[in-house]
C-alpha cells in the first residue's frame, strides 16, 4: 500500500513563505491554499502543510515549538546530485533562509541544511547507494 505524507508546520507570513519556497523550485496545490495555509508539493504523495500559528493551533493540543531554541522536526528531502544540493541550499540562504548544521560529506552521501523563514530545519541530501558500505 502506498501512503501519502502530510507534514504540518507553521509560518508567520504566508505570502513571504510562499515566495521563499517558490524560489526554491517548489510548487503548491492551490486547492488547499488560502490566506492561512499553504500546501507545498514535495511529490505526488508528499506535502508540507504550512499554516499560520493560529490555524495550526486548531489542529494540536499543547504549545507550538519555539524554533529559535528547539527543533520539533527535521524535514529532509533528496536531491539528484551534490550540485543540486548546493544549488538548493545556496538559494535558500540567499533568499532569507539561515544556516543550520555543517555540511555532511560521507562520500556516498552528501548533505547540507538550512532553516526557513520561520526557523524550521530542512536537510537536503544526495545519496549514491551503490557506494554505501553498510
Give a quick account of the main beta sheet: strands, pairing sense, barrel closure: 5 strands, mixed
Roughly what percent helix?
Answer: 10-25%
The average pLDDT value, as a whole number, equals: 95
Structural class: alpha+beta
- How large, in whole angstroms, is the Cα Rg? 15 Å
Features of the shown structure:
134 residues, alpha+beta, 2,3-Dihydroxybiphenyl 1,2-Dioxygenase, domain 1, 2 domains, 5-stranded mixed sheet, 4-stranded mixed sheet, globular, Glyas_Bleomycin-R_OHBP_Dase
Plain-language structure description:
The protein is an alpha+beta fold and about 130 residues long. It has 2 domains: about 1-65, 2,3-Dihydroxybiphenyl 1,2-Dioxygenase, domain 1, CATH 3.10.180.10; about 65-134, 2,3-Dihydroxybiphenyl 1,2-Dioxygenase, domain 1 (Roll). Helices cover about 20% and strands about 35% of the residues. The chain has 3 helices and 9 strands. Strands 5, 6, 7, 8 and 9 form a 5-stranded mixed β-sheet that branches. The longest helix is centred in the middle third of the chain and has 13 residues, at about 80-95. The chain starts with a strand and ends in a 7-residue tail after the last strand. The mean pLDDT is about 95. This is Glyoxalase/fosfomycin resistance/dioxygenase domain-containing protein.
List the helices and strands and how they pair.
Blueprint: E1 5-10, H1 14-23, E2 27-28, E3 37-43, E4 46-51, H2 53-57, E5 74-78, H3 82-94, E6 98-99, E7 104-105, E8 109-115, E9 121-127
Parallel strand pairs: 1-4, 5-9
Antiparallel strand pairs: 2-3, 3-4, 6-8, 7-8, 8-9
Organism: Gordonia soli NBRC 108243
Pfam family, one: Glyoxalase
InterPro entries: Glyas_Bleomycin-R_OHBP_Dase, Glyas_Fos-R_dOase_dom
Amino acid at each position: 500500500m502506498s501512503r501519502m505524507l502530510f507534514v504540518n508546520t507553521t509560518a508567520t507570513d504566508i505570502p513571504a513563505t510562499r515566495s521563499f519556497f517558490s524560489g526554491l523550485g517548489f510548487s503548491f496545490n492551490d486547492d488547499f491554499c488560502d490566506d492561512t495555509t499553504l500546501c507545498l508539493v514535495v511529490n505526488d504523495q508528499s506535502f508540507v502543510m504550512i499554516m499560520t500559528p493560529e490555524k495550526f493551533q486548531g489542529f494540536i493540543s499543547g504549545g507550538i515549538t519555539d524554533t529559535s531554541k528547539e527543533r520539533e522536526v527535521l524535514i529532509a528531502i533528496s536531491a539528484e546530485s551534490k550540485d543540486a544540493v548546493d544549488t538548493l541550499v545556496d538559494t535558500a540562504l540567499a533568499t532569507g533562509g539561515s544556516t543550520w548544521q555543517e555540511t555532511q560529506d560521507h562520500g556516498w552521501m552528501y548533505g547540507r541544511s538550512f532553516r526557513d523563514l520561520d526557523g524550521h530545519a530542512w536537510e537536503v541530501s544526495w545519496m549514491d547507494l551503490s557506494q554505501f558500505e553498510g
